[in-house]
Amino acid sequence: xxxxxxxxxxxxxxxxxxRAEADLQILQSELYADIQRQFAANSGLVFFTRFxxxxxxxxxxGAEEHxxxxxxxxxxxxxxxxxxxxxxxxxxxxxxxxxxxxQKYGGAQNENRKEILAIDGxxxxxxxxxxxxxxxxxxxxxxxxxxxxAYDTSFIVNRVQHFxxxxxxxxxxxxFFIGGDNFMSPCNGLDPEGILKIIExxxxxxxxxxKAGVGxxxxxxxxxxxxxxxxxxxxxxxxYKLVHVMKE
Amino acid sequence: xxxxxxxxxxxxxxxxxxRAEADLQILQSELYADIQRQFAANSGLVFFTRFxxxxxxxxxxGAEEHxxxxxxxxxxxxxxxxxxxxxxxxxxxxxxxxxxxxQKYGGAQNENRKEILAIDGxxxxxxxxxxxxxxxxxxxxxxxxxxxxAYDTSFIVNRVQHFxxxxxxxxxxxxFFIGGDNFMSPCNGLDPEGILKIIExxxxxxxxxxKAGVGxxxxxxxxxxxxxxxxxxxxxxxxYKLVHVMKE
Amino acid sequence: xxxxxxxxxxxxxxxxxxRAEADLQILQSELYADIQRQFAANSGLVFFTRFxxxxxxxxxxGAEEHxxxxxxxxxxxxxxxxxxxxxxxxxxxxxxxxxxxxQKYGGAQNENRKEILAIDGxxxxxxxxxxxxxxxxxxxxxxxxxxxxAYDTSFIVNRVQHFxxxxxxxxxxxxFFIGGDNFMSPCNGLDPEGILKIIExxxxxxxxxxKAGVGxxxxxxxxxxxxxxxxxxxxxxxxYKLVHVMKE
Amino acid sequence: xxxxxxxxxxxxxxxxxxRAEADLQILQSELYADIQRQFAANSGLVFFTRFxxxxxxxxxxGAEEHxxxxxxxxxxxxxxxxxxxxxxxxxxxxxxxxxxxxQKYGGAQNENRKEILAIDGxxxxxxxxxxxxxxxxxxxxxxxxxxxxAYDTSFIVNRVQHFxxxxxxxxxxxxFFIGGDNFMSPCNGLDPEGILKIIExxxxxxxxxxKAGVGxxxxxxxxxxxxxxxxxxxxxxxxYKLVHVMKE
Lengths: 248, 248, 248, 248
Known about the structure:
4 copies of one chain form a homotetramer. Chain A is α+β, with helices and mostly antiparallel strands.
């Protein structure tokens, strides 16, 4: 995985005086879209995470591509980005290594740290394997979006995210909100039963019914696509399972 | 407030087959940046919320501007957006009215509902008043970002968001994550003591120290800017309070 | 009219070494789209011109909006823009005044000139009048695009542009390529007969048949829209004239 | 080379009624930036040409990448694009073949033609060779931009473009305006003496002094970069030649 971090962003946002919040929101979301587009061109997938810190599943994206993206961002934005790359058996461990690799070069607000590419390790293509779960809330549109206020729905979605994050991190899996009522979880090492157990616990604890499509492939693009297809199978009633897996 | 909702988005994302996740992420974040830029041109402020449902503080943005933005999006994206507008004493109540106004015209996945502008009520300029709190985590960069893994930091930030949402909604205030360790809360009707109490409770419950700058002005742009300035005063040590208010 | 000029752009593009041409092309076209969107929010219309120098018809766009746009660009791009504003009877004269006003503050590559807003004069709303002609080539798709090589068609389009610019500048009118086989000409002071004469001359000289829709309104947005509608009337055969005018 | 053509664009722009010109300008320039970014990720280079028809030097970009880009655009814009690919000794011949290949599938305004990828031929990597000339006007900032009106400068730049196109097409070379006073010419098969002769003719005919940096490499990105470096050598006075060539 790759950690993408804006260099010295916090201080920049308030120098010389606080920049218009709307401009910062535009900058952050366009930067995310831009980085997403460039990693996607190499079959990677980026999650916005905190916007100033993004995490990406980058199996198959080489160091040269990372450098090209850094340079391209530096040429078109008022800020620069540093990156850390790590590889491990679980996504949690991979991002931990990626974070540590970058942290070695100085803090996020270190004025002297700029456009660093810190590589702890990268997976070689023949061993590359990505497992991603696409999780959503059953029938949210009819049961929530169309009935209760928009904020209440987003409150519930955030609550679900909070519970999912708490349970998945214990398994070495990550969870990212991807809009609507959808979440994506890079979850190498977590088996379907493990995911089902988490879904059942959440139904018990907060009475929200979830389902998950799981994709397994050599890169994030294919794994995410298979996870979508698996989720469609559940939605379409082709399977009664709450967790459905599709391999390449 | 205005609720901006993508028309029939869910079905579109999987028709004829699931679209590449990266493309959807790019589409959503560019749409948000685009809508933000257009509302900002009229001193409004948009929060991405769930991306397919966005909430905006739009005091001073007229119906004509809303229509222009709808049309402009319809001309440049593969999707269209409907909007609901509501006004009330508290942000929560305003978004509730905005949601109800739009829901009357059909569900988010109703194929026949397209580019609706549903107005429950709008505030007239002389009565317009916006209060926004900019809340962040004290010294997160040194204590978290530069030390622990990136995902762990975002886990803590999400946890803080979850607790803040829970406490603020009881006061009729909303909370939105705006990146990094920053949150913005439209909080008309909530006094500084009320915000301080919530900050203290969170420090007790999850041991995370927060601070809040509060801005009061006729529109969201000015209120957010004053909130930023107030937060800078705390950061700069010009006040020892954890909640600092600035009026126009 | 408003001249929008990137500050000290040339030197920036080659410092420290020439930046990737693709990045510069992306930067320029996104900057244009961005500035267009913001002026359009105030019913203005921007032409990309040379990209590092853009000309815009900005009747009705106030000094405050110009400043807001400058600041917003400065917050989101690695470059800043300066602007000059001029008003006159003819578009040519207006851009001449706008250019002179900005030139007074230093050259385009003057390192010390940054985010200048130089106002020579602005039209007040009750006297505001914009005349825009939308000119295109008759049946270009069937006669050229679908038959000859793409470059040959663009060669012919450029040739038409060259002849139109030469003839229109003598009348104090401007001409901008807006894509495809379309041109827009801010042409206050030029009557339909004058435009028809130019179209006929070009048919004689280079044997290309043109037609023009002309719109007259208080701002660029409405004038351009009326020009489009007038052109549609000719395309639709509702008039046999080669030049058709629509007023508000 | 690759021809990228928006499917049935003309009719779309006026259906049901003419769309706001500003929106079309934003759509076109963002589409160009987007396509540029995606081809650039594979070391290609796109020229905006007529915006609804773009020409790109795509040596080294495979059919799969072309398909990915088409799909990505189709997922995020209200329009789709078709592409034709051709290979030849000269750029002119290559775009001719690319155009013919696409034209076979139906016209640009054929309602049934959608997302076609028409391949006449592609160069294999070991034979791939791109020659690009970066041509600009000597001292334009001091002599024109900072002295005469902005439109007059763009008039002169367009005049230079017109003359360059006329002379280069006879040599099988193409010419594209890339902003400011800069032009790029894919010119495989044209030797430095040929370029110098054209520059001298233009100085004689319209008294404008040009210079050219020429780059030779296996792909467009490297060739353009070498052309930039060669031009810098002339600007820096490291060579007195008006045409300077750099090879990989």
